[in-house]
Every structure is written in structure tokens, then in C-alpha cells.
Amino acid sequence: MAAAQSRAMVVMHDLDLGYLVCEFNLNHLFAGGPDQQFPAILSLPEPVVRFDHGESRDCLTIAAGGNLVVAVASRKAQTLLYDTDSRSISAGPDTLSGKPAITLVPVAGMFFAMSCCPHLDTKGSPHFELLLRLHDTEEEEEEENRSRWAWRPVPDPPLLSSPGRLGREWFISARFVAGAHVWVSFSGEGTFSFDTASRRWRREGSWVLPVSGRAILVPDFLGDGRQLLFGFCSREQGGHFCAVDMEARPPAIIKSWPEACVYQCQLALCAGYRAVLETAGLAYLGGGRFCISMHVITGYIERKCIMTNTSSRRPREAFTLMAVEVTPELQLLKRKLECHFMPPGSTLAYMV
């Protein structure tokens, strides 16, 4: 069952500062609302951690699970570990191969790395890997091994590794975590689940999930026994916040709330800003409470590129955090909205 929480982490990539991870307490956003106008834009809180992208400016994929924030470099295959208890960064093991596009999923105390575009990976390299804590091997090494991690290769799903499909282009269209399992939809190929305990794949069906990107499973929504998956439908379907019945086959959207994102867009427009619908992100806080994030372009600034010594006109971006509640009858209640400026050199922000 999805655990109740009151905080969410947001990752921002800044061309000069690297990757910033900020933590937000969201409880106050559920007190009253909805807002009648776009709120004043706030400055960022002090980052919990900053990951440097180095001289090579490698792309990092970041995920958080338990007391650990993990950052993986796509090209150099490096791993960085931030412990939220000790507030320290350490170098983790390198992934077994670099991947041009990575999705990193926290699951059952581990981290599952998936190549979003496997056909772009180096030939013969694993498309899937699992970062896990090593077991104690000897009593005298117990303390040392407790903090050690290692990447292990994961085989491709059987259908995708069959001779007739080798070399074909396939993409991850959606994913979510269910206990110790990771469910993954591959565009045009179907949906599979990976059991992190047995390290085995299972084909769930020839269908793909009717959501896009990361979704959140709530297996006993508000105690009524329903298996509901929450996320955003595809861009072709409008990109709306929606709920999917996971007991149906194929799983089907049973309710969508266009007003959740349109509301933010309308408030931003009235303030002279532009919300970017495609950047919507989601966090679940338990009890039917969700937080939806989006990018907002507030204007444009002149920015000088350090590497080329040239100036360019770039958007000045902020991101919103909007609280909503979903009732047992699947009615959406809009709560409060908060907005924070991103650093001037930022190119993206997303919740982890």
C-alpha cells in the first residue's frame, strides 16, 4: 500500500549549478483552497543536496527511496549516493554500461535502472540493471558490507529478447511499482512485470497501460479494495490526470480530471504566464491526497553561455505544486497552489 507522507522532493537541472534536489512540506497546501488567482512566486528553499554534472556535463537521472537519493550518469555510468540521515554524498558502483536515456525506479529497497531507448544502447550491454545492497559475507565484514551496493544485470523480458525481435526499436511508455514488482509497458509490445525477489519477468498482456511515464498504484484506494493506478493519460488523449482500473483487462481509465491541469493553466494565463502541460508530475501523500507539479514560463531573460561566451534569450521558468484530493466517489477537490522560481539556468524540474 502506498505510504502516507507529507513531503515531496523536486529535482532541478541547472546548466551552471548542476542538479539540485529540494524538499517541500506539502501539508499546508491542503488547508483550504482553491486559489482564485495565481500565487506570488516564491524563492527556492536551500537544496537538500546538489549533484555536480562535471566538466563533461553528463546527464543524471535521479530517484529517491527510503533514506537514499541515487543519481546515475547516462554516459559515464557513474553512481552517486546521498544518505538523507547522515547528509553525506558517496560514490557508488558504476552501472554495468552507459545508457543514453535512463529511467530509475526505487523498489523494495533497491533501484531498478531501465534503458528508455534500448536500441540506442551499446550492443551487448544490459538494458536493465538492479542496484542492491550486498549481503554480509563474513561476520568481521558485517559493518563494511552494510553500506556496500552493487549493480546486477537483469535479462530482457522474454518476448523482447526473442530472435524475431532482436534489433527492433522499442520504447518504455509507462511504468509503476507494485510492492516488489515493477510493471513496464513497451510501446507496441505489451506490458511486463519484473519480480525483484525472483528476478523474473512475467508478461501481463499484449496491451499497454493507458497512461504515460511514471504512474502510482494505490492498491486499496481509501480502504474500498479498489486497485487504482493514478497518472497522466497520453498527450494524444490530452495529458489529463486520471485513474485507471487495474482489475480490468485491459486496464482502462475510469475517470479523468482535465480541470486539474487546466485550472493551473488558466490561473497562470491570467497572471501573464504560460503553464507547460507536458511537464506535469505527480506525488501521492496518502488518504486520497495528491500533488501535481508543472512548469510555468514567467517571462524571458538574457543568459550568457560560459562555454561559448554568447548570449541567448531563454525562458524564465518556475514550477507549481498544486494539492488535490480524490474522494471515494472519484470526485476531484482542488486545494491550494504554490509556485517557486527555478534557477535562471534551469532546463527541467520533476518530482521524485
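^ that was protein a. below is b, sequence first then the C-alpha cells
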Amino acid sequence: MIFSICSQMEERKREDLNKDILVNVLGRVGMESLLLDVPFVCKSWYKASREPQCWEHLIFPSYIKPDNIREEESPDRGFAERLAMKYQENLSVFAFVKFIVNHSCGNATIIKLPSRCPEEALEYIANECPKLKILDVGSYNLSAPYIYFGKDQASALVASLPKLEYLDLHGGSLEKEALLMILQGCKQLVHLDVRQCFGFRDDDAEILELASHIPVFMCEGSMVVPEIEPNSLHDHRLDHELLCDKINHDDCVYGLNFDFDDIFEDI
């Protein structure tokens, strides 16, 4: 009896929370809780979790599928296993990204993509997230497939997100022409990370001149591989993916390239 009364009181307390305050709080709890926990607390929390304002900062886990996680202690394992259980392992990375992006209804301002994210996701984000200020494609290294960024992707990015301020393409395949399009079209960039990319040289005078106005521009280690010209990088992605599967995952390091806590305060 006492437990029942207490439960009813707690329910009323949750229901009586100011909606604006609740939405503000829920927008900070993280994707896993917002998707798999909050909607099941009570009706008012479910309704609040559907508000686009809760989905402005989309920080995806590095991995969506449990089979792609080799470390038993990975912080992403629990989330991935819960997703697999809910969607019966039929959820593709692109489908999940699209599903989450749609929750924002075009209000997303920050997106950090998961590993093994297909190019279609970049194009979808460019078309559906006009308010986006920060796009982190992730730290792609030899344990994950390249992100390929060519002229078509750059054109879509510039056309849809000309006010983009932070962009991370670290470790991907990036054609020089695509980078030039980004530098010329995204005039409000204050942070551009294109380190260790394939497709242009880090000492290219034209690129350095166009990027000179960007407060934080990083391109160290980028190069044109002699046997793989920039216009043929796209055709070599499959070979790279097969090579990546053979590399010991334990030797690779993952991590965000931005201090998101600091960035949140500026937005």
C-alpha cells in the first residue's frame, strides 16, 4: 500500500515537470538513454523525448552492431546489444543514422557519425540538417573503411551546409578538388581537420592559401599515394576494406577529435 502511494506520488512529480525544462534536460542525457530508457518512464517523458529539441546533438556510438566490437569492455557494447535486441539485428548503420537524424526534424546542430558509416549518410545529413554547425565523420584509421569524399559529396555539403563551422574528415579519402570546393564554399569554418587523408598533399600551396583564414586548420600527414591517384581512390575502397579486416584491431585507437563539452558552451 505504502509502495503504491509512493509510486503514484513519484509519477505525479514526473508528470508535473515543466516541459521546456524537461526537454532541455533530456537533450543532454545521451542517445542511448533518450532512445531506449526515457520514453518508457511515463507518458509526459515519452512525449518530451519526441521533441526535436532533444535531438540537436547527435553523438553516435563508434559502433552500432555488436559483431563489430571486438573489445569486451567497450563502452559501446551495451548500447549495441540493446539495439540488436530491439531491432533483431536487422538495423543497418545507414538506417539507424537516418532514423536518428529524422528525430531532429532538421534541428541537429552537432553530429558525430559512427564508424563504418556509408557515404549515403553524409549526403542524407547534408540534405536534411540545414542547421548543422559541427560534423565529425570520425577518426578513420586502418581498422575501419575509408570515408570517401569526392566532388559530389563536397558539392552537396557546400550547397546544403554553407554555414558549417566544424568539419572533421580526418583519415579519409579526400580529393583535392573536393577540399577546394569545401574551402571556397564553407566560408564560416573555424575548425577543419583533414589530417592523414589520401588525395592531396599537406604542403599544397593552393590549399594552404585558401585555408589561411580558418583559425584551426589541420592537414598534417595528408598525401597522394603514387600508385593511387586521387580520381581512382574511390575504386580502391573495397581493397582497403579487405585489408582492414586483416589488421589487429587492438593496435588501433579510436576517439573523438573535438572536446564536445567546450563546444556545447559556445552554441
